[in-house]
Protein backbone atom coordinates (compact mmCIF):
# COMPACT_ATOMS: atom_id res chain seq x y z
CA UNK A 1 0.00 0.00 0.00
CA UNK A 2 2.50 2.56 -1.21
CA UNK A 3 5.19 2.64 1.48
CA UNK A 4 8.02 0.16 1.74
CA UNK A 5 6.78 -2.28 4.37
CA UNK A 6 8.93 -4.58 6.42
CA UNK A 7 8.62 -7.69 4.33
CA UNK A 8 8.86 -10.73 6.52
CA UNK A 9 10.60 -13.60 4.85
CA UNK A 10 8.71 -16.60 3.55
CA UNK A 11 8.56 -19.21 6.22
CA UNK A 12 11.18 -21.66 4.99
CA UNK A 13 13.71 -18.99 5.99
CA UNK A 14 11.83 -17.26 8.76
CA UNK A 15 13.01 -16.47 12.26
CA UNK A 16 10.87 -17.48 15.25
CA UNK A 17 9.76 -13.90 15.61
CA UNK A 18 8.17 -13.96 12.22
CA UNK A 19 5.93 -16.87 13.09
CA UNK A 20 4.79 -15.08 16.24
CA UNK A 21 3.99 -11.92 14.23
CA UNK A 22 1.98 -13.97 11.74
CA UNK A 23 0.08 -15.69 14.52
CA UNK A 24 -0.64 -12.39 16.27
CA UNK A 25 -2.06 -10.85 13.10
CA UNK A 26 -4.18 -13.92 12.38
CA UNK A 27 -5.45 -14.01 15.98
CA UNK A 28 -6.44 -10.35 16.05
CA UNK A 29 -8.45 -10.65 12.83
CA UNK A 30 -11.53 -12.77 12.22
CA UNK A 31 -12.57 -11.73 8.70
CA UNK A 32 -10.32 -12.82 5.87
CA UNK A 33 -10.54 -12.51 2.10
CA UNK A 34 -10.20 -15.74 0.16
CA UNK A 35 -9.39 -16.00 -3.53
CA UNK A 36 -10.24 -19.13 -5.50
CA UNK A 37 -10.65 -20.06 -9.12
CA UNK A 38 -14.00 -20.32 -10.85
CA UNK A 39 -13.82 -21.19 -14.55
CA UNK A 40 -10.14 -20.17 -14.45
CA UNK A 41 -10.99 -16.69 -13.22
CA UNK A 42 -10.07 -15.41 -9.76
CA UNK A 43 -12.89 -14.71 -7.32
CA UNK A 44 -12.35 -13.03 -3.95
CA UNK A 45 -14.87 -13.13 -1.12
CA UNK A 46 -14.82 -12.26 2.58
CA UNK A 47 -15.42 -14.93 5.16
CA UNK A 48 -14.90 -15.69 8.84
CA UNK A 49 -11.89 -17.69 9.94
CA UNK A 50 -10.04 -18.82 13.01
CA UNK A 51 -6.45 -19.90 13.43
CA UNK A 52 -5.95 -23.45 14.71
CA UNK A 53 -2.25 -23.93 15.47
CA UNK A 54 -0.58 -23.96 12.04
CA UNK A 55 -3.79 -23.88 10.01
CA UNK A 56 -6.37 -21.28 9.14
CA UNK A 57 -9.93 -22.61 9.23
CA UNK A 58 -12.29 -20.91 6.78
CA UNK A 59 -16.02 -20.82 7.40
CA UNK A 60 -18.51 -21.23 4.59
CA UNK A 61 -21.59 -22.98 3.40
CA UNK A 62 -21.17 -26.47 2.03
CA UNK A 63 -21.93 -25.18 -1.47
CA UNK A 64 -19.61 -22.16 -1.27
CA UNK A 65 -16.99 -21.54 -3.90
CA UNK A 66 -14.28 -22.01 -1.29
CA UNK A 67 -15.52 -25.46 -0.30
CA UNK A 68 -15.93 -26.50 -3.92
CA UNK A 69 -12.42 -25.30 -4.80
CA UNK A 70 -11.02 -27.21 -1.83
CA UNK A 71 -12.84 -30.42 -2.85
CA UNK A 72 -11.35 -30.33 -6.33
CA UNK A 73 -7.84 -29.54 -5.03
CA UNK A 74 -7.81 -26.07 -6.57
CA UNK A 75 -5.45 -23.56 -4.90
CA UNK A 76 -6.62 -20.88 -2.49
CA UNK A 77 -5.10 -17.60 -1.39
CA UNK A 78 -6.09 -16.07 1.95
CA UNK A 79 -5.41 -12.52 3.18
CA UNK A 80 -5.94 -10.98 6.61
CA UNK A 81 -5.41 -7.23 6.88
CA UNK A 82 -5.49 -5.00 9.95
CA UNK A 83 -5.36 -1.26 9.32
CA UNK A 84 -3.69 0.75 12.08
CA UNK A 85 -3.41 4.32 10.86
CA UNK A 86 -3.58 6.92 8.13
CA UNK A 87 -0.07 7.99 7.17
CA UNK A 88 -0.41 11.69 6.48
CA UNK A 89 2.75 12.49 4.57
CA UNK A 90 3.83 15.80 3.07
CA UNK A 91 3.86 14.32 -0.43
CA UNK A 92 1.12 12.46 -2.25
CA UNK A 93 3.64 9.70 -2.98
CA UNK A 94 4.33 8.89 0.68
CA UNK A 95 0.71 9.19 1.80
CA UNK A 96 -0.58 5.77 2.75
CA UNK A 97 -1.81 3.67 5.64
CA UNK A 98 -0.10 1.72 8.37
CA UNK A 99 -1.22 -1.89 8.35
CA UNK A 100 -0.36 -5.46 9.21
CA UNK A 101 -1.23 -8.19 6.76
CA UNK A 102 -0.73 -11.89 6.23
CA UNK A 103 -1.17 -13.61 2.88
CA UNK A 104 -1.06 -17.37 2.56
CA UNK A 105 -1.33 -19.77 -0.34
CA UNK A 106 -2.19 -23.42 -0.49
CA UNK A 107 -4.75 -26.06 -1.14
CA UNK A 108 -7.64 -26.30 1.27
CA UNK A 109 -9.09 -29.44 2.78
CA UNK A 110 -12.73 -29.76 3.79
CA UNK A 111 -12.86 -31.01 7.38
CA UNK A 112 -15.02 -34.05 8.16
CA UNK A 113 -16.36 -35.82 11.22
CA UNK A 114 -14.84 -34.94 14.58
CA UNK A 115 -12.43 -32.46 12.97
CA UNK A 116 -15.36 -30.63 11.40
CA UNK A 117 -17.28 -30.57 14.67
CA UNK A 118 -14.26 -29.32 16.60
CA UNK A 119 -13.58 -26.64 13.98
CA UNK A 120 -17.11 -25.27 14.39
CA UNK A 121 -16.45 -24.95 18.13
CA UNK A 122 -13.18 -23.14 17.41
CA UNK A 123 -15.05 -20.76 15.09
CA UNK A 124 -17.46 -19.73 17.86
CA UNK A 125 -14.72 -19.38 20.44
CA UNK A 126 -12.41 -17.59 18.00
CA UNK A 127 -15.05 -14.98 17.21
CA UNK A 128 -16.12 -14.51 20.84
CA UNK A 129 -13.88 -16.11 23.46
CA UNK A 130 -16.08 -17.48 26.25
CA UNK A 131 -19.16 -17.88 24.08
CA UNK A 132 -18.87 -21.60 23.37
CA UNK A 133 -20.11 -22.61 26.81
CA UNK A 134 -23.34 -20.63 26.27
CA UNK A 135 -24.41 -21.40 22.70
CA UNK A 136 -26.65 -24.22 21.61
CA UNK A 137 -24.45 -26.74 19.83
CA UNK A 138 -25.11 -27.43 16.13
CA UNK A 139 -27.47 -30.16 15.03
CA UNK A 140 -26.42 -32.72 12.44
CA UNK A 141 -28.38 -30.79 9.80
CA UNK A 142 -26.62 -27.55 10.72
CA UNK A 143 -23.25 -29.26 10.62
CA UNK A 144 -24.00 -30.62 7.15
CA UNK A 145 -24.87 -27.10 5.94
CA UNK A 146 -21.60 -25.63 7.17
CA UNK A 147 -18.23 -26.34 5.65
CA UNK A 148 -14.90 -25.63 7.27
CA UNK A 149 -11.90 -25.54 4.96
CA UNK A 150 -8.43 -25.82 6.49
CA UNK A 151 -5.46 -24.14 4.81
CA UNK A 152 -1.97 -24.76 6.21
CA UNK A 153 0.02 -21.73 7.37
CA UNK A 154 2.97 -22.76 5.30
CA UNK A 155 3.57 -20.71 2.17
CA UNK A 156 2.94 -17.42 3.92
CA UNK A 157 4.20 -13.88 4.02
CA UNK A 158 3.47 -10.97 6.30
CA UNK A 159 3.84 -7.25 5.87
CA UNK A 160 3.96 -4.73 8.67
CA UNK A 161 3.96 -1.02 8.01
CA UNK A 162 4.07 1.26 11.06
CA UNK A 163 5.37 4.55 12.34
CA UNK A 164 5.45 8.12 11.06
CA UNK A 165 5.54 9.17 7.40
CA UNK A 166 8.85 8.62 5.60
CA UNK A 167 8.98 11.95 3.87
CA UNK A 168 11.66 12.96 1.44
CA UNK A 169 14.09 15.31 3.26
CA UNK A 170 13.35 17.97 0.63
CA UNK A 171 9.72 18.01 1.78
CA UNK A 172 10.49 18.79 5.43
CA UNK A 173 9.96 22.26 6.87
CA UNK A 174 7.45 23.27 4.22
CA UNK A 175 4.73 24.22 6.69
CA UNK A 176 2.55 21.21 5.90
CA UNK A 177 1.22 19.11 8.80
CA UNK A 178 2.37 15.49 8.75
CA UNK A 179 1.86 12.56 11.05
CA UNK A 180 -0.41 9.61 11.65
CA UNK A 181 -4.11 9.36 12.42
CA UNK A 182 -4.44 6.19 14.54
CA UNK A 183 -7.18 3.79 13.49
CA UNK A 184 -8.75 1.33 15.89
CA UNK A 185 -11.73 -0.97 15.88
CA UNK A 186 -14.14 -0.19 18.68
CA UNK A 187 -16.78 -2.50 20.10
CA UNK A 188 -19.89 -0.75 21.40
CA UNK A 189 -22.38 -1.47 24.13
CA UNK A 190 -24.05 -4.81 23.31
CA UNK A 191 -27.61 -4.39 21.95
CA UNK A 192 -30.01 -7.05 23.28
CA UNK A 193 -32.08 -8.97 20.72
CA UNK A 194 -35.70 -7.77 20.65
CA UNK A 195 -36.82 -11.24 21.78
CA UNK A 196 -34.38 -11.48 24.69
CA UNK A 197 -35.70 -12.27 28.19
CA UNK A 198 -35.49 -8.87 29.93
CA UNK A 199 -33.75 -10.08 33.10
CA UNK A 200 -30.67 -11.42 31.31
CA UNK A 201 -27.47 -9.45 31.84
CA UNK A 202 -24.83 -8.95 29.17
CA UNK A 203 -22.13 -11.60 29.68
CA UNK A 204 -18.72 -10.35 30.76
CA UNK A 205 -17.11 -11.76 27.63
CA UNK A 206 -19.22 -9.33 25.58
CA UNK A 207 -19.10 -6.21 27.74
CA UNK A 208 -15.31 -6.51 27.86
CA UNK A 209 -14.90 -7.65 24.26
CA UNK A 210 -11.71 -6.60 22.51
CA UNK A 211 -9.25 -8.31 20.21
CA UNK A 212 -5.91 -6.56 20.64
CA UNK B 1 -20.57 -15.15 6.36
CA UNK B 2 -22.99 -17.69 7.75
CA UNK B 3 -26.29 -15.84 7.84
CA UNK B 4 -28.52 -15.42 4.83
CA UNK B 5 -27.65 -11.95 3.63
CA UNK B 6 -29.76 -9.75 1.43
CA UNK B 7 -28.21 -10.59 -1.88
CA UNK B 8 -28.43 -7.62 -4.17
CA UNK B 9 -28.94 -8.63 -7.74
CA UNK B 10 -26.19 -8.43 -10.30
CA UNK B 11 -26.30 -5.08 -11.98
CA UNK B 12 -27.92 -6.00 -15.30
CA UNK B 13 -31.12 -6.52 -13.25
CA UNK B 14 -30.47 -4.09 -10.44
CA UNK B 15 -32.72 -1.38 -9.10
CA UNK B 16 -31.37 2.17 -8.71
CA UNK B 17 -31.22 1.63 -4.97
CA UNK B 18 -28.73 -1.14 -5.40
CA UNK B 19 -26.30 1.10 -7.20
CA UNK B 20 -26.48 3.65 -4.40
CA UNK B 21 -25.82 0.93 -1.80
CA UNK B 22 -22.80 -0.27 -3.77
CA UNK B 23 -21.46 3.27 -4.08
CA UNK B 24 -21.96 3.93 -0.37
CA UNK B 25 -20.04 0.80 0.60
CA UNK B 26 -17.21 1.60 -1.81
CA UNK B 27 -17.03 5.20 -0.59
CA UNK B 28 -16.87 4.25 3.10
CA UNK B 29 -14.01 1.81 2.52
CA UNK B 30 -10.52 2.58 1.28
CA UNK B 31 -8.75 -0.79 1.60
CA UNK B 32 -9.84 -3.51 -0.80
CA UNK B 33 -8.64 -7.03 -1.46
CA UNK B 34 -7.74 -7.82 -5.05
CA UNK B 35 -7.41 -11.30 -6.51
CA UNK B 36 -5.42 -11.90 -9.66
CA UNK B 37 -3.81 -14.86 -11.38
CA UNK B 38 -0.12 -15.68 -11.15
CA UNK B 39 0.91 -18.86 -12.97
CA UNK B 40 -2.77 -19.84 -13.04
CA UNK B 41 -3.04 -19.68 -9.27
CA UNK B 42 -5.13 -17.10 -7.42
CA UNK B 43 -3.32 -14.50 -5.33
CA UNK B 44 -5.13 -12.06 -3.06
CA UNK B 45 -3.54 -8.90 -1.66
CA UNK B 46 -4.80 -5.79 0.11
CA UNK B 47 -4.42 -2.41 -1.51
CA UNK B 48 -5.80 1.12 -1.36
CA UNK B 49 -8.51 2.18 -3.75
CA UNK B 50 -10.90 5.00 -4.50
CA UNK B 51 -14.16 5.00 -6.40
CA UNK B 52 -14.27 7.24 -9.46
CA UNK B 53 -17.84 7.33 -10.76
CA UNK B 54 -18.43 3.84 -12.17
CA UNK B 55 -14.88 2.61 -11.73
CA UNK B 56 -12.74 1.48 -8.85
CA UNK B 57 -9.15 2.74 -9.03
CA UNK B 58 -6.60 0.41 -7.46
CA UNK B 59 -3.30 1.72 -6.16
CA UNK B 60 -0.08 -0.23 -6.56
CA UNK B 61 3.49 -0.11 -7.64
CA UNK B 62 4.23 -0.32 -11.35
CA UNK B 63 5.64 -3.82 -10.87
CA UNK B 64 2.78 -5.10 -8.70
CA UNK B 65 0.94 -8.28 -9.57
CA UNK B 66 -2.23 -6.26 -10.06
CA UNK B 67 -0.63 -3.96 -12.64
CA UNK B 68 0.98 -6.89 -14.43
CA UNK B 69 -2.31 -8.80 -14.55
CA UNK B 70 -4.05 -5.71 -15.93
CA UNK B 71 -1.41 -5.23 -18.62
CA UNK B 72 -1.84 -8.77 -19.91
CA UNK B 73 -5.65 -8.56 -19.83
CA UNK B 74 -5.96 -11.11 -17.04
CA UNK B 75 -9.16 -10.89 -14.95
CA UNK B 76 -9.29 -9.31 -11.51
CA UNK B 77 -11.70 -9.68 -8.63
CA UNK B 78 -12.04 -6.92 -6.04
CA UNK B 79 -13.75 -7.08 -2.65
CA UNK B 80 -14.54 -4.33 -0.16
CA UNK B 81 -15.89 -5.44 3.22
CA UNK B 82 -17.13 -3.33 6.12
CA UNK B 83 -17.85 -5.16 9.36
CA UNK B 84 -20.61 -3.63 11.48
CA UNK B 85 -21.26 -5.98 14.37
CA UNK B 86 -20.87 -9.32 16.08
CA UNK B 87 -24.10 -11.27 15.80
CA UNK B 88 -24.35 -13.07 19.14
CA UNK B 89 -26.94 -15.76 18.49
CA UNK B 90 -28.19 -18.45 20.83
CA UNK B 91 -26.93 -21.19 18.51
CA UNK B 92 -23.46 -21.69 17.10
CA UNK B 93 -25.06 -21.97 13.66
CA UNK B 94 -26.58 -18.46 13.69
CA UNK B 95 -23.55 -16.78 15.27
CA UNK B 96 -21.92 -14.52 12.74
CA UNK B 97 -21.14 -10.90 11.92
CA UNK B 98 -23.11 -8.10 10.36
CA UNK B 99 -21.32 -6.71 7.36
CA UNK B 100 -21.64 -4.92 4.05
CA UNK B 101 -19.57 -6.09 1.13
CA UNK B 102 -19.12 -5.46 -2.56
CA UNK B 103 -17.40 -7.88 -4.92
CA UNK B 104 -16.65 -6.96 -8.50
CA UNK B 105 -15.08 -8.79 -11.40
CA UNK B 106 -13.48 -7.56 -14.57
CA UNK B 107 -10.36 -6.74 -16.46
CA UNK B 108 -8.31 -3.85 -15.20
CA UNK B 109 -6.71 -1.12 -17.26
CA UNK B 110 -3.53 0.66 -16.28
CA UNK B 111 -4.15 4.40 -16.44
CA UNK B 112 -1.76 6.57 -18.42
CA UNK B 113 -0.98 10.27 -18.86
CA UNK B 114 -3.54 12.75 -17.57
CA UNK B 115 -5.85 9.94 -16.40
CA UNK B 116 -3.02 8.51 -14.31
CA UNK B 117 -2.18 11.90 -12.84
CA UNK B 118 -5.81 12.64 -12.01
CA UNK B 119 -6.23 9.19 -10.45
CA UNK B 120 -3.34 9.85 -8.07
CA UNK B 121 -5.08 13.06 -6.96
CA UNK B 122 -8.30 11.12 -6.41
CA UNK B 123 -6.39 8.58 -4.32
CA UNK B 124 -5.12 11.29 -1.95
CA UNK B 125 -8.49 12.98 -1.70
CA UNK B 126 -10.34 9.68 -1.36
CA UNK B 127 -8.18 8.62 1.57
CA UNK B 128 -8.29 12.03 3.28
CA UNK B 129 -10.80 14.51 1.87
CA UNK B 130 -9.25 17.98 1.97
CA UNK B 131 -5.67 16.77 1.90
CA UNK B 132 -4.98 17.26 -1.79
CA UNK B 133 -4.57 21.03 -1.45
CA UNK B 134 -1.80 20.54 1.14
CA UNK B 135 0.37 17.73 -0.22
CA UNK B 136 3.34 18.11 -2.48
CA UNK B 137 2.32 16.85 -5.90
CA UNK B 138 4.10 13.80 -7.33
CA UNK B 139 7.18 14.18 -9.48
CA UNK B 140 7.47 12.42 -12.82
CA UNK B 141 9.64 9.76 -11.21
CA UNK B 142 7.08 9.17 -8.46
CA UNK B 143 4.30 8.96 -11.02
CA UNK B 144 6.25 6.36 -12.99
CA UNK B 145 6.69 4.27 -9.84
CA UNK B 146 2.99 4.24 -9.06
CA UNK B 147 0.40 2.38 -11.08
CA UNK B 148 -3.33 2.95 -10.94
CA UNK B 149 -5.50 0.18 -12.32
CA UNK B 150 -9.13 0.97 -13.16
CA UNK B 151 -11.77 -1.75 -12.90
CA UNK B 152 -15.31 -0.97 -14.07
CA UNK B 153 -18.13 -1.33 -11.52
CA UNK B 154 -20.09 -3.49 -13.87
CA UNK B 155 -20.17 -7.18 -12.99
CA UNK B 156 -20.76 -6.51 -9.31
CA UNK B 157 -22.70 -7.84 -6.38
CA UNK B 158 -23.26 -6.56 -2.89
CA UNK B 159 -24.26 -8.27 0.31
CA UNK B 160 -25.67 -6.55 3.35
CA UNK B 161 -26.26 -8.38 6.60
CA UNK B 162 -27.69 -6.34 9.48
CA UNK B 163 -29.95 -6.49 12.49
CA UNK B 164 -30.39 -8.88 15.40
CA UNK B 165 -29.67 -12.62 15.39
CA UNK B 166 -32.14 -14.77 13.48
CA UNK B 167 -32.46 -17.50 16.04
CA UNK B 168 -34.50 -20.62 15.57
CA UNK B 169 -37.77 -20.22 17.52
CA UNK B 170 -36.89 -23.36 19.48
CA UNK B 171 -33.81 -21.58 20.85
CA UNK B 172 -35.73 -18.62 22.32
CA UNK B 173 -36.34 -18.33 26.05
CA UNK B 174 -33.44 -20.59 26.98
CA UNK B 175 -31.79 -18.07 29.29
CA UNK B 176 -28.90 -17.36 26.92
CA UNK B 177 -28.05 -13.73 26.14
CA UNK B 178 -28.38 -12.81 22.46
CA UNK B 179 -27.95 -9.62 20.51
CA UNK B 180 -25.39 -7.62 18.60
CA UNK B 181 -22.09 -6.05 19.62
CA UNK B 182 -21.72 -3.00 17.36
CA UNK B 183 -18.37 -2.60 15.64
CA UNK B 184 -17.06 0.75 14.47
CA UNK B 185 -13.82 2.11 13.18
CA UNK B 186 -12.51 4.94 15.33
CA UNK B 187 -9.96 7.53 14.33
CA UNK B 188 -7.80 8.79 17.16
CA UNK B 189 -6.04 12.05 17.94
CA UNK B 190 -3.56 12.74 15.12
CA UNK B 191 0.07 12.10 16.15
CA UNK B 192 2.49 14.69 14.73
CA UNK B 193 5.53 13.39 12.87
CA UNK B 194 8.73 13.67 14.98
CA UNK B 195 10.17 16.09 12.42
CA UNK B 196 7.10 18.36 12.27
CA UNK B 197 7.50 22.09 12.84
CA UNK B 198 6.11 22.54 16.38
CA UNK B 199 3.84 25.49 15.62
CA UNK B 200 1.73 23.64 13.04
CA UNK B 201 -1.83 22.82 14.08
CA UNK B 202 -3.64 19.66 13.07
CA UNK B 203 -5.76 20.47 10.01
CA UNK B 204 -9.53 20.34 10.49
CA UNK B 205 -9.86 17.60 7.90
CA UNK B 206 -7.80 15.33 10.20
CA UNK B 207 -9.17 16.27 13.62
CA UNK B 208 -12.70 15.69 12.30
CA UNK B 209 -11.83 12.67 10.16
CA UNK B 210 -14.52 10.05 9.78
CA UNK B 211 -15.84 7.99 6.88
CA UNK B 212 -19.44 7.10 7.67
Describe the structure.
The structure is a homodimer of 212-residue chains. The first copy, chain A, has one domain (6-162): Pnp Oxidase, Chain A (Roll). Chain A has 212 residues and is α+β, with helices and mostly antiparallel strands. Chain A is 21% helix and 39% strand. Chain A has helices at 16-28, 65-71, 113-127, 140-145, 204-207, and strands at 6-8, 31-38, 41-52, 55-61, 75-88, 96-107, 109-110, 146-152, 155-161, 179-187, 191-192. The model of chain A is unreliable at 6-16 (pLDDT under 50). The radius of gyration of chain A is 20 Å and the shape is globular. The two termini of chain A are 22 Å apart. In chain A, strands 1, 2, 3, 4, 5, 6, 7, 8, 9 and 10 form a ten-stranded antiparallel beta sheet that branches. The first copy, chain A, contains five helices and eleven strands. At the A-B interface, β2, β3, β5, β6 and α3 of A face β2, β3, β5, β6 and α3 of B. β10 (179-187) of chain A pairs antiparallel with β11 of chain B, so a sheet runs across the interface.
What is the number of domains of chain A? 1
Shape call of chain A = globular
In total, the number of strands of chain A is 11
Terminal CA distance of chain A = 22 Å
- Could you state the oligomeric state of the chains shown? homodimer
CATH fold node name of chain A: Pnp Oxidase, Chain A
Radius of gyration of chain A: 20 Å
CATH class of chain A: Mainly Beta
Largest interface: A-B, 93 and 93 residues
Mean pLDDT of chain A: 92
Class computed from helices, strands and strand pairing of chain A: alpha+beta
Largest pleated sheet of chain A: 10 strands, antiparallel
Secondary structure: helix percent of chain A: 10-25%
Strand content of chain A: 35-45%
Low-confidence stretches of chain A: 6-16
Which CATH-level-2 architecture of chain A?
A: Roll
The CATH superfamily of chain A appears as Electron Transport, Fmn-binding Protein, Chain A
Supply the number of helical segments of chain A. Answer: 5
Amino acid sequence: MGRSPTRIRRLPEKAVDDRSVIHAILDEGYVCHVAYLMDNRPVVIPTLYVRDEEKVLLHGSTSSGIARAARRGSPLSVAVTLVDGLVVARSAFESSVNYRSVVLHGEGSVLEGADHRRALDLMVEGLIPGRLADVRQPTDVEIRKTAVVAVPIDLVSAKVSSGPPEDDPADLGTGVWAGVVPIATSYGEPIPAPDLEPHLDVPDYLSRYRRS
